[in-house]
Specification:
Blueprint lengths: L26 E14 L2 H5 L7 E2 L4 E9 L7 E12 L2 E11 L2 H11 L3 E3 L1 E6 L3 E8 L2 E14 L9 E9 L2 E9 L3 E16 L14 E13 L4 E3 L5 H4 E3 L8
Parallel strand pairs: 5-6, 5-10
Antiparallel strand pairs: 1-3, 1-13, 2-4, 3-4, 4-5, 7-8, 8-9, 9-12, 10-11, 11-14, 12-13, 14-15
Length: 256
Amino acid sequence: MPLFGQLDLGTIAPRLPTLPDLDTHAWTLPGAETMQLLLETPRGAADALLPKAMHPAVPSYLAFTFTRCPESPVGPFTFATVRLGSRAGAHPRGLVLGAYASTPEAADGLRRGWGIPASAAKVSLTRRHDRLMGTVVKDGTTVLDCALVNPEAISGSDVQLINWVTMANAPLDGTTSPMLIQVDPKYVFHKAERGRPEVSVFDPAAWNAGPLQPGNPIVATVATVDTDLPRIRFVMDPAKPVYQGTRRIRESRADE
């Protein structure tokens, strides 16, 4: 029997970002460096953070991502997300729990364009000889300090960057209500490395992550890519199974 999330939408709807419309313009992000750390997390607490439309991953895991963008429509910025591993139907997805961006312009654009719950903070991605370190400092407090340790070169075809789902209040058919929004960037790989994920500081309250804490390491990757944040193509009713509640907003990415 399939498993579903157990989130009570009423507990989070007031804090969700609100999109003015679903006609988001794509952002092209060439030459970005993106780091993804995957670590297991306790299953019971994870189910309570997933909407009923989505299936929990088995085992449950958290994805910590940092992306440094030297070019974008709002200028250079770095942003970080914490996502909860899950599935939308048969497709693996990472539900964005929290996000921070290094400039107010980027944070505002992420919230208004895709419903990514971003706030401005000090976000950095720093390379040392034996590791790549990601940190987020909010109001003088470190809320995330993590690293990819001992990177080794691999092929970009060996990297699986999991597509995102965000939850936001968005207008559809004359009504603004909570929706799941699919964010499915494209990636052209120029360089990739793999290593061991390590999280030394994680404040779950700062990431809307309830009681979740990272556990056993799975894998860490970093890649230099040409990527994007695309126009919204699909939205989903968070209270219905995706095969019942998915709406197509546009046919393809050809007009981006």
